[in-house]
Amino acid sequence: NELVILDYTKNFPIQLVESKVDYFVIDSSRFINANIYSSLSLPQTTGFYQVLYHNKTAVFARKEKQLVLSSKDENDSHYKEFDWYYIYLDNKLYKVDNEKTVLNVFTDKKSELKKFINTNRIKFRKNFENAIVRTTAYYDQLKK
């Protein structure tokens, strides 16, 4: 959860001061500093959140990799990735981790969203990020 870039010669890494960075973009993905956007009431107030979707409703992802050391063999150490997803709706933040929790956020349009998910064969288990973004975007269309 640190922001590191290479200097202009591309030889030396530079760690940026987190509090001085509001946001940054990698490829087309925007990441916001949780410290700066305290009005969102993000669960962790430090580090960066990826903005997956932002309109009337927003979808954020928090991604973290932790080094898991093997007690038996140094070469068996690996990184484990953790992902947390949140929907920001009506000034509230909801943690979601499956289709059911996503639909529970959108209770007022739950039946329309179920039909949309089934018609478009959206699979939350196969690609959760895409599924949550498509569902949230459709919800915003319904709320017009």
In short:
The protein has 144 residues and is α+β, with helices and mostly antiparallel strands.
Q: Can you walk me through this structure?
A:
The N and C termini lie far apart (37 Å). This protein is globular. It has a 6-stranded antiparallel β-sheet with strand order 3-4-5-6-7-8. The protein has a two-stranded antiparallel ribbon with strand order 1-2. The longest helix is centred in the C-terminal third of the chain and has 15 residues, at 128-142. The protein has 144 residues and is an alpha+beta fold. The protein has helices at 99-105, 110-119, 128-142; strands at 4-6, 13-15, 23-26, 29-33, 48-54, 58-68, 78-89, 92-96.
The averaged pLDDT comes out at: 88
How much is the radius of gyration in Å? 18 Å
- How many H/I helices? 3
Q: H/E order of the elements?
A: EEEEEEEEHHH
Q: What is the fold's blueprint, element by element?
A:
Blueprint: E1 4-6, E2 13-15, E3 23-26, E4 29-33, E5 48-54, E6 58-68, E7 78-89, E8 92-96, H1 99-105, H2 110-119, H3 128-142
Antiparallel strand pairs: 1-2, 3-4, 4-5, 5-6, 6-7, 7-8
Descriptors:
144 residues, globular, 3 helices, two-stranded antiparallel sheet
